[in-house]
Amino acid sequence: MFRNALKAQLTRNNEFQRCKHTSKLDVIREKLREGPGLAEFVSEDRPKNWDDYEGKLKREKGESERLRLPPWLKTSIPTGAKFNAIKEQLRSLKLSTVCEEARCPNIGECWSGGKSGTSTATIMLMGDTCTRGCMFCSVKTSRAPPPLDPDEPRNTARAIGEWGLGYIVLTSVDRDDLPDGGSSHFAETVREIKRQNKDILVECLVPDFRGDRDCIASIANCGLDVFAHNIETVERLTPFVRDRRAGYRQTLKVLETAKEVNPDLITKSSIMLGLGETDEEVEKTLKDLRTAGVDCVTLGQYMQPTKRHLKVQEYVPPATFARWQRRGAALGFLYVAAGPLVRSSYRAGELFVSALLRDRRANSA
Question: Distance between CA 18 and CA 27 in Å, rounded?
Fold first, then answer.
């Protein structure tokens, strides 16, 4: 009888402990459900003054470890109905974007619409596989990419029409496997977009087409509004950062040629910082771009896309970018965008160029 009573008491105690344990788990689960999500850990609260940041920003000579990401470069995880809708539409039309392929940190803001509520995406033409292998870029590479999609110009124009945008950026992979580098395909896409909506402003961020003047001319005269080609880095670092077929002087020549062929074009280029360049080299690059007739320039932070790519040598603080923005304006660029998260396709820049182009049209009319 005593044994039965003891057994019953132990059973009650175990049941009590189990219920107590379950109750604690439920409380913890509830707190987790109500607490912050992963995105809030990724995107930290920004301090009022970035100069107070005490983390290491620059790798010294001989150091091999990767630098930790400073707080001003941490962005939220892409989410939202608009983001998902654009992604599904791009997949259904077999279109690629540089936003995804180059792992742009601004993809969440641009695709979801950000504060303005207007969604944008930079469409990458001629597939998602490049014939070149630049050490900063995560786009897939191959000597023999798949053939061009003949429906791509029409599908691209259709997608842009459904978004209802006033400004669109088109870019592409390098296609050295094609006789004309894909320039005619690129130009046809612009013409198709303009056929469907003559008022839309089109910016083309193009390859160098191996410096071929006819290929550059076919783009410059296809009806686009902004001709962009990125110089990427300073002259000394170009052989280590870009594919051997891409040259610093060749890039300047491409930009010069576009302006010669069509003087009414706005030309644009972009520089990445944090690869080991000096202030003197950045200054020289900006001056070289102005000499080539470039109207707009953007400067942003290089971000290592994968472990196989070049490591970041320095995380440039926002104050330094602000200094370069002032310097670019002093050199005579129509527009300068400089900041850690600024990319060649930058929303604020698009708004400025839109206003400039529409003002020009109004004056000419």
Answer: 14
Contact 336, 269 (CB under 8 A): no
Residues with Cβ < 8 Å from 232, sequence gap 6 or more?
134, 136, 238, 241, 242, 246, 251, 270, 271, 272
Q: Hey, how many other C-beta atoms are within 10 angstroms of the C-beta on 1?
A: 5
Which among 116, 113, 228 is positioned nearest to 163, based on CA atoms?
113
Q: What are phi and psi of 229, to 5 degrees?
A: -150, 125
Tens of pLDDT, residues 311-332: 899 999 999 999 999 999 999 9
Only one residue has tokens 């202030």, namely 279
Strand 129-130 and strand 140-141: the pairing is parallel
| Residue 243 · residue 134 · CB < 8 Å | yes
| Interacting residues of 300 by C-beta distance below 8 A, sequence separation 6+ | 270, 271, 272, 273, 338, 339, 340, 341, 342, 343, 344
The total number of residues shown for the chain amounts to 365
Beta bridge partners of 203: 169, 226
CB 228 within 8 A of CB 344: yes
Query: Vertex 295, ends 294 and 300: CA angle to 5°?
Result: 85
Distance of alpha carbon 325 from the chain centroid: 19
DSSP 235: T
pTM here?
0.73
